[in-house]
Amino acid sequence: MIPKIITTTETESIEEIISPFAESLHIPVAQRIGVYPEKDELTVEQIHLMQKDIQVAFSEKVLVVLVGVDASSSEVQNSMLKSLEEDSERIQFLFIVKNASLLLPTILSRCSLDESRKIISNEEITEINDDYFSFQNNSETKKEDALIKIDKLLTSSPLKNQNTLNYVLQIRSLIVNNNMNPVSALDAILIFLSKTSSMNKVHEK
Asked: What are residue 94's phi and psi, to 5 degrees?
């Protein structure tokens, strides 16, 4: 089963998200593990305990819910990577986050994002342009600068759509591995975001 990412808001109840998701997979309450932040973020110790619980306590299908991974450190996120690839027939991971873009690219590439929460607005595109790319200054952008801007976009922006995240990761890979022109790369990302916003408006109508 492919790990799932669901974005949520301050006003939504976590249980309101977990229950219908678990029921759709026919996973009873007794076969669910919830990992919640002890304070502001998850800890490596919590992830290790979760991994031990999965192996020891469950022989049937299990739902593992991780809340607030986006607010946790890179060390914590890296500590769960191996688990995402183990026993995928039996284990369903569910990430409940406020901002999926704060997840490491290595986690995003292994997961499916809830497409029902995917709208990106023109206002958000303007913020991305102003805050992350500063396109008016891109004419002399170097490869290293472009990668810094893209990494900042991936870790700090309001990107919510799996296709958008995959596209940005693909462009980054082209810069690193195929020497894609950095100016063209940044332009391509902004154009893609603009088209995504336009398509969302059409679907809303």
From this structure: -130, 115
What is the distance between the alpha carbons of residues 153 and 169, in angstroms, rounded to a whole number? 10
Instruction: Say how many residues make up the chain.
Output: 205
Tens digit of pLDDT for each residue in 153-185? 777 655 656 667 778 888 999 999 988 888 888
CA 124/CA 120 separation, integer angstroms: 6
Calculate ∠ Cα 136-156-91, nearest 5°. Answer: 140
pTM of the model: 0.59
Q: Which tokens in the block code for residue 146?
A: 């472009």
Take residue 136 and report the two structure tokens written for it.
Answer: 């008016």
Superfamily name and number for 4-112 = P-loop containing nucleotide triphosphate hydrolases (3.40.50.300)
